Structure formats: structure tokens, C-alpha cells
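Usage example:
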Amino acid sequence: MDTRTELPFEIRDYLRLDRMPHFLCPGCGHGIALRALLNAVHELGIDRDDLAVVSGIGCSGRLSAYIDANTVHATHGRPLAFATGLKLARPDLHVVVITGDGDCLAIGGNHLIHACRRNLDLTCLMLNNEVYGMTGGQASPTTAAARYTTTTPLGNHEPVFDACKLAEGAGASFVGREVTLQAPALKNLIREAIAHPGFAFVEVMSDCTEIYGRKNELGSSPEMVLRQKHDVRPESYGNAVERPFRPGPWRTGVLAKNERAEFGAAYRAHCRAHHGGGPGDV
Amino acid sequence: MNAVVRPRNLQGNRACALAAIEAGCRFYGGYPITPSSEIAECMAAELPRVDGVFVQMEDEIASMGAVVGASIGGVKAMTATSGPGFSLKQENLGYAAAAEVPCVIVNVMRGGPSTGLPTRPAQGDVMQARWGTHGDHPVIVLTPASVMEIHAETRRAFELAERYRVPVVLLYDEVLGHLVETVAAPADAGASATRRFASGPADAYQPYRPGADGIPDMARPGDGYRTHTTGLIHDEDGFPTQAPARVGAVMARLLGKLDAHRDAIERAECVDCGDAEVVVVAYGITARAAARAVAEARARGIRAGLFRPITLWPFAERAFAAATRGARRIVVAELNAGQLALEIERLAGRERVGRLNRLDGEPLAPAAVLAAIADAAGATGER
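Running the assembly step on the lines above writes:
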């Protein structure tokens, strides 16, 4: 146990301060997600030496470099594949994946659905800012209808992925969603996701103010996240509250949770049952 | 170590899998593809016996990604594939080269391009094995010519991967993959090279600062070093840099890191090259036809020899120069349209080099190689 976890949460304790200043734009929601993750790690008492963070490519992918842990900045769309190998080889590590909507749902979509199916003990944070920010603002699978991006100059005409429904349908044993404006709720959700023994998928509804927001005249970052807050329906509200929903509607909170067998432990138990765990006659 | 060597009759692909386990491989990320699938099947059965992990991933890309992830975790890791899958693995193979993550990739070659000839042998991936991923990068490619040698070179692949922190490609063809021959090697013939893990104070550790041999020690997650691994060009601290002076320096080390070790990496066999007028260059299954052809040529009074690279890349230039110093003609025999021939022409000069190629999904027969030797000997004016 890291002794610092007995102290109040100080984000500096979990950051590589020599990597600062970070490169995120003013108003970007990714920093709030990063803070929520590190706060959750702190509350769970996870030693940084035993934490591995694997990220993909894009704005979200750069976050791993700021975290003072074992960090891997993988190839585009493949952090779940890297993390699957790492966690299977090293079940003693806590492995968290940070990915984006393009990284996770477009180029990496196949890895997501099979990670959900396997139910290996990984925590996958998908930071959804509805756009490819790093490459200059192209449309992603979560770009909302009619939104302008550099590759939807006439407004987006493509349907939107509901990542949480996808994850739940593919078998993820923990699925949750939260907006960055609800930072304490986001922290609690991530904490529950990491503690969950199995594949946990968390969609963080982030915002891209500089590129996406500007192009669509969505206003300042506070205006964007407030609009987001009003566009979602927290699970805790039940069905009593009617709100103007965006297509979805986007439910937040813990959306699915079950305790089915964790892949790595099940594999090892299966092998031990057949071979007694020792070297056999090769 | 076993004093008694019990010969085993093994299929080439099975010999590869068993040798990998003997070398300490404890992670296999696979995806089914002909004609390599027996390697995955054998690993699925055998790894659980040694507390290893076999996982069949959702695609070829994921299997390579999982191998890189497992190796970052400190575990020796391998995958196997064939042409179409080898194409899909290239990006993550390049990541392993750039981030210096040890791993072994087996490519059991079948006819290409594209889906090609899934069940037929070919040697069309010689250049892809060297240059398949984008950008300049180091790689080691081994090309065994028998089941016994598949066993030996698989073990060596892990030693080289771990010692030099580089992806090692084991390249052989469908015939060798499915050939059954006797392997007479002890199953526990000494420990394979183990990784040189970082030790000492964490605050003084630089993940990519080279040791005396030009190779950095590798940190094991959980040992307190908390390093960053990235496919971006990174400085000795592991973090991205775009400063031209630093990029130039780290690329120079990366691309040159095998140079000081070429004697240890390069391996080749020379048969009757000492006085040879005609030297055949052949590897893998083709080398076996060539060996027969060279013997028959000798019986007919033609001074022929065989140069057989076992390490394909980096190419054994010095051994090749010595083997062909007296040769007037060199014949490069291969199951492609002329790939290693390009390297041989570069080294020996185009005027000395002839090509013997076959692309119809059948191996080259000794008679074809013998005819090429006779032609070349005729061209030298000597019989």
C-alpha cells in the first residue's frame, strides 16, 4: 500500500509534474476525467507501482504520459489489445485503458466488443468528445446529427453509436456513463468500475470546446457542459423526470452490472483443473 | 540438463511451438491462419501445462498487440501467422521495433499476394519481413531449413529478441511447417537468455539509456520504475521528443544497435564454397533442393557450392563475401520473383548474379537447381 493514500487526495502526487504544462486545450473535459481517475485510484489505495495505464492515439491517448504509473501509449485503436496481453501476463497489475470515441468505436471497435465478451478485469475509460480532435476536428462515430466537422461540411448525416448499449450488448459486466460536469459522480463511477472484477466500460461525456464547439457555435466550455448536463438522464432520477433528450437519450450512472466470471481467473482455474498448475510432460 | 537426448518426431510447426516453450515463452496471442495454425493449436494445449497463457484474439492486429502488451509486462511472448496476417501485424510489429519490446513473430509463408495460395509454399515475404512496417527500423529475421533447425532457431529467436530488445521474425515456408522430421535436442537444453531487467535506484533510471552493449535495460512493471512506453520517437527518458538533435541521436542508436553484434546474430552455412566456380544462394526449403543439386553437380565435375543464410536479416555479408570470393557466377534460387536476389546483386554486382525463381505454388526441385548450376557453369566456360 502506498502511504500517500492515507492522506487527502492531491493530484500532484499522481502526476508526472515534469511533463507539465499539459497540451490539452482550454475548456477540454479530458483533464476532469484524468483527475477523476486519479482521485478514484487514490481512494482505492492502489499503489502507483501496481497501476498500468494503457492509452491509444488521439487527445485521450496523450493522458497516459501525465500519470506517474506504468504507462503505455499504444497504437491507434489498439490499447485494449495491448492491455489484454498485459493483464493476462500480469494479473497482479491494475490495468486501466484510456481511449477516445474514434480510437475505441471506429478503428478499435472490434477490440472493444471482444474485450466486453471476454470480461477480462480491465477498466476502459472512453472519453467521448464527439470528434477527432488531434487530427483537426473530423467526424467520429459519436458526432451528433447535423454537427459540422471538417469532414461533414454539410452537417453530419451519419447515425450515432451508443457506446454503452454496444458494450452492454457485447457482454461487458460493468457499464457506466457520466458527464464531466458531475465530477464527484464521475470519480465515484470510475472508482466502482476499477473495483469491479471484470471488464468495466465507462463512457465519459467530455467536450471539445476549441474545435468542435467553436465550429458548431456551442459557446464556451461552461455552456457546453451545462447543455450536456441537461441532455442526460441520470439513472438515479428514475423515470419520473422528463427532460429534453438528445437522441439516445443519454442515460448516466451505472447502466449495467453483473458478476459473471472474470476471464483471466477463469482461464487459470480451467488450466489448473486439467493440469494441476505444474509443468507437465511436454 | 538432460543427459539423454530422446529424439522426437515432430512436425515443423509443432517443433516451433515446443521450442518456444523450452525457450521460456509464456504468452501466446494467436489468430487462426493456414499454414501456421498448428503453432497456435500446440500452444493452446501446452502453455497451460507450464502456467503460461494462450489467448486467441479477435484478429491478427489484436494478437500482435497482445504480444507487445505481454512483453511490456515482462513475459516472453510470441505469435504466429502467414502472409495476410503478417501484413495486418506490421503496425504493431513496428511499435515493438520503435519501443524496443522483445517479441517473436513466426511467419509460415504461403503463396501471395493477397489471399494467394493458402496451402502452398512460397518465399514471397523476404522483403516484407525486412521492410514491412513503415519507417526505418531494426529487425532480425531467421530462416531455418529443417524441422531440427526450426527448433534451434526458434530458441535462438527468443535469445536474440530478449538480448537486443528487437522483434525477431522466424520465416519459413508451408513445406517446412508441415514437414515431420526428427528433432534430437534436449527439451531443457540450458536456459535461454533472460531479459536484462532494470535494477538500481529508480530516480537514476533512464528507460532508453543504452548499456555498454548499446542495449538499454528494460523496466518490469511493478518494480517501481513507472516508465512510459510509446511508439512516438522518444528520448532516453522514454517521453516523446521532436528536437532534431535528439531525434537524430536516438534514431542513430536504434538503427545501429545491432551493428556491434552482427557476428553473434548472423548465421549461415557454406557447403563446398572453398573452390566453387558457381555458388547457389538458397534458404529454407529451397536450400534443401539446392544442397542436393550442388552434390550432383560436384559428381558431374562442376565446382559448385551452396551459401545458405540462416539469419536472413541482417544479411551475413562477411560470410557471403568469403564464400563467393572465388565464384564467377552466383545463382539465387527462391520461391518468389527475385527478392533476396536484390541483396545479392547489391553485394556481388549484377553481372555475377543469376536468378532461379518459381512462383506457381510448388517448391523448386533439385533438377531445376542443377540445370541452373550447369547453365551458370557453362557461362563461366568451364565444365
